[in-house]
Write a structure and sequence with these properties.
The complex is a heterodimer of chains A (141) and B (460). Chain A has helices at 7-35, 47-58, 81-85, 87-95, 114-128, and strands spanning 66-67, 70-71. Chain A has 141 residues and is an all-alpha fold. The chains are: A mainly alpha (141), B mainly alpha (460). The structure holds protoporphyrin IX containing FE (2 copies) and fe (ii) ion.
Chain lengths: 141, 460
């Protein structure tokens, strides 16, 4: 890298390349947003789902679990837990924590009301119906 | 030290190292909880320890970046810092806000913390890495703006070098992309989509500019190679970084409900993301081989070379390993991800901050380089921490391959928890490697207190 390839040329390529590829990212983002409703299950964003998402967030569930493969890797994937376990199991599970089994990974007790539990389940149902291009590979997540 | 005001960097570096220790202690707590599930339960549940671990990491790296900028910019601009007072005030604000946030995580149930800190006004909490209360997030923005104002004003009144331009663009980018942390739509797919505009566009975008600038600065100082040459390299590296990394964001858009064309865009562009990291390694070795002087600070040279190699391994090689969509289909959100996250963060950002600290701290303490004995200890800590991190990565990778095999590839897939039991041996080994890492860190701390003959600061 010497001779005719100068620092000024390198700098111009940097600014030009950055602007070009950032605009490409913006264009792809725009297109993604336009086509998203076909896949993102937003038609089912009911008030219960929205309330459930808030419970999910304010209990920091993502600090142990993954959701659609993102989060922590300490506890099972929950993006498809609605399909794996069903609503009644999920509610009973949350209410019966912690198991207290010695040496086993423990999940906290969050003292959720029945309504909060229903909202959380609604959120998990909504999540499980997002079109994720067939991920995860099987029901175990 | 050429400019008095560079001294404000010192508290930033000290705070960075202090928080680093906290980060590692919580890493070890979690590592143990992986195999002794009820360890410290219910006092410190895993999710709380994880927030502390990752948020401390981010905050101490930010302290490191800010300290680096306060040290570098006056020297690059050849003028005193615009306002050292502002820099010190912001230091205390950031430190106190950070400490209160960590205390909040540990002392209060997260839902209570959310309620007390305004999460109902604007819901931003409870997303990985962005767990901070609203007021902390606002505080981060205020500190960042004050910091950027200070640095920008300094640069405007002095010499404008390419290194300081690149650093500044990187730091402004860091602040601007953080603003996406305030956007949390109800639509989970959109939430995730823009979450990556903070996380990915940080570590595989604007932070690479900061990384390149810090490395270039230290290399100029310790090798004496011509600035023109080094700055040309810097532009080539960051061009490669952004040209691949911006569209490379798509490697996170395979399975979260986004259109499937991202599997192509993401795979192709992110497969090229190792290039800037490879260029960085070649750059570091090349400059050191062409050095025009023997700098007395051998440890700083070692850290600089180590950054090149480990960033390439962690981000480049381990990133490539799972970035193609057909592979990521099986590895997504597994221990492979954790393996890569650890070596990439350590190799690139931890090591570059330790590089600048290694170079600048002796000068801030009034000498060109530390005494021989202190440097030897520091180099021991380099090898202990780096080799420990290599083993952490290898053990997590082994755990990840088995996890994917048992839980996802198999015709009779095992449940998540059953799989975790099967691979616990590797989690034990990761924890022991973590203990070695902690020993390395303690050696690092000790190296600051070793006395001996020093040459006085004629440093440039
Ligand atoms: C003693 C050493 C360490 C141990 C035992 C340790 C342990 C852990 C554990 C158990 C997790 C949570 C994984 C999960 O979600 O299930 C984690 C996450 C994380 N740690 Fe560490 N850690 C250590 C050092 C470090 C260092 C030095 C860094 C930075 C360079 C780091 C950066 C991270 C990051 C970025 C995450 C989030 C990873 C992801 O989301 O994929 N850790 N760590
Ligand atoms: C220094 C630069 C980098 C750092 C600090 C870094 C760090 C991380 C972290 C912490 C995660 C986990 C995020 C989460 O918790 O969900 C991650 C995910 C990922 N990274 Fe990187 N990374 C870097 C560079 C790269 C590069 C260059 C590539 C590709 C060549 C790459 C490919 C990936 C992929 C594909 C994932 C998603 C893994 C999954 O699906 O679970 N990374 N990275
Ligand atoms: Fe990424």
């Amino acid at each position: 890298m010497s001779g005719i390839f100068t620092k000024a040329m390198a700098r111009n390529i940097f600014y030009g390349g950055t602007v070009f590829f950032f605009l490409l990212l913006v264009a792809l983002t725009f297109d993604t947003n336009k086509t998203l409703p076909k896949r993102d299950n937003s038609a089912n964003l009911t008030p219960a789902v929205i309330a459930g998402k808030k419970i999910w967030e304010t209990r920091n569930c993502i600090g142990c679990h993954t959701l659609l493969g993102e989060g922590a890797y300490y506890a099972p994937e929950l993006g498809n837990v609605y399909k794996r376990r069903g609503p009644e199991f999920i509610k009973a599970w949350i209410q019966s924590q912690p198991t207290g089994a010695p040496g086993r990974r423990q999940m906290p007790q969050f003292h959720l009301t029945d309504e909060e539990l229903d909202n959380l389940v609604a959120f998990l149902k909504y999540s499980s119906e997002i079109n994720t291009a067939n991920w995860p590979p099987n029901i175990e997540g | 030290m050429q400019y008095k005001s560079q001294a404000v960097a010192k508290p930033y570096f000290i705070a960075a190292i202090g928080l680093f220790v906290g980060q590692i202690l919580f890493g070890l707590i979690m590592g143990l909880q992986y195999v002794v599930g009820d360890f410290l339960f219910p006092e410190i549940p895993f999710n709380i320890a994880r927030m502390v671990h990752t948020n401390l990491l981010i905050v101490w790296l930010l302290f490191g970046f800010m300290g680096a900028a306060y040290y570098m910019i006056p020297e690059e601009a050849e003028t005193e810092l615009f306002s050292p007072k502002l820099a010190l005030t912001l230091f205390w604000i950031f430190l106190v806000a950070g400490a209160l946030t960590i205390v909040g995580y540990l002392a209060l149930p997260y839902a209570t913390l959310a309620k007390l800190t305004g999460n109902d006004i604007l819901e931003t909490m409870g997303r990985e890495f962005l767990e901070q209360p609203l007021i902390t997030k606002v505080g981060i923005v205020i500190v960042a703006l004050g910091f950027l104002f200070n640095i920008t004003m300094t640069m405007l009144k002095g010499r404008k070098t390419s290194i300081s331009m690149v650093l500044l663009v990187g730091l402004w980018g860091l602040a601007i992309f953080f603003l996406f942390s305030f956007y949390n739509p109800h639509n989970l797919v959109k939430d995730k989509f823009y979450w990556w505009w903070v996380v990915h566009l940080w570590v595989e975008g604007v932070w690479e500019l900061i990384l390149g600038a810090l490395l270039a600065f230290v290399l100029i100082k310790v090798t004496g190679v011509d600035r023109e040459v080094i700055e040309k390299w810097l532009y080539v590296i960051i061009t490669l970084a952004l040209v691949t990394g911006l569209i490379g964001t798509g490697h996170h858009y395979y399975w979260i409900g986004t259109p499937e064309y991202w599997q192509w865009w993401g795979s192709i562009f992110s497969a090229l993301e190792p290039l800037p990291f490879f260029a960085m390694t070649v750059f570091a070795f090349n400059m050191v081989n062409r050095r025009r002087r023997e700098h007395p600070n051998k440890a700083a040279v070692l850290w600089a070379l180590g950054t090149g190699v480990m960033a390439f391994l962690g981000a480049g090689v381990w990133g490539f390993l799972h970035t193609l969509a057909p592979v990521n289909y099986y590895t997504h959100g597994s221990q492979i991800t954790a393996a890569h996250g650890h070596m990439a963060f350590y190799g690139a950002y931890v090591m570059v901050v330790l590089t600048i600290i290694s170079y600048a701290m002796p000068i801030l303490r009034g000498r060109a380089a530390n005494p021989e004995k202190a440097q030897v200890l520091e180099m021991w800590s380099f090898w202990l921490m780096t080799i420990a991190m290599v083993f952490i990565t290898l053990f997590l990778t082994a755990a990840g391959i088995l996890q994917v095999w048992l839980q996802r590839v198999s015709d009779t897939p095992m449940s998540f928890m059953a799989t975790q039991d099967q691979i616990s041996l590797f989690f034990w080994m990761r924890e022991w490697a973590g203990v070695v890492f902690l020993i390395g860190l303690i050696v690092y701390l000790v190296s600051f207190f070793v006395k001996g003959d020093t040459r006085s600061a004629s440093a440039s």
